[in-house]
Design goal:
By secondary structure, the protein is mainly β. 0% of the residues lie in helices and 39% in strands.
């Protein structure tokens, strides 16, 4: 019922020191599993409205077996974290921009070592 901007239906953040240009990524490992959820109808005011959003360099996430559809933003976004995995998620995405999001050059030095893997048998359907 609300309007989302730079957020997702499931939003994960870690240590406040995990944002900015000089991030020590060793402090940003959340080691969380996000599975068996349904996220849909996320609306963004200006940007955002994602399904599952690991923000501020959150690392070591495993996102699996979720059903994500009708979103204004990416279905799954790993924002500058490392060792993240999206596995076997069902995505029905109506956004014309991107299905999966990763780090952008605005944050940090843009180094994307082992940032994310997206693996699935069925990951995207379009009408």
């Amino acid at each position: 019922m609300g309007i989302l901007s730079d957020f997702g239906g499931i939003y994960l953040a870690s240590n406040p020191r995990c944002s900015g240009p000089r991030v020590d990524l060793s402090e940003c490992h959340l080691h969380a599993r996000v599975s068996l959820n349904t996220v849909h109808r996320a609306s963004a005011y200006h940007y955002g409205g994602m399904g599952i959003y690991g923000d501020t360099a959150v690392s070591s996430l495993r996102v699996e077996k979720n059903w994500l559809y009708d979103l204004d933003g990416a279905a799954i976004n790993f924002h500058c974290g490392q060792n993240n995995l999206a596995l076997n998620n069902m995505v029905y995405h109506t956004n014309g921009h991107h299905v999966f999001g990763t780090c952008n050059r605005i944050v940090g030095d843009g180094v994307l070592l082992r940032q994310a893997s997206f693996k699935s048998r069925i990951q995207y359907m379009s009408c």
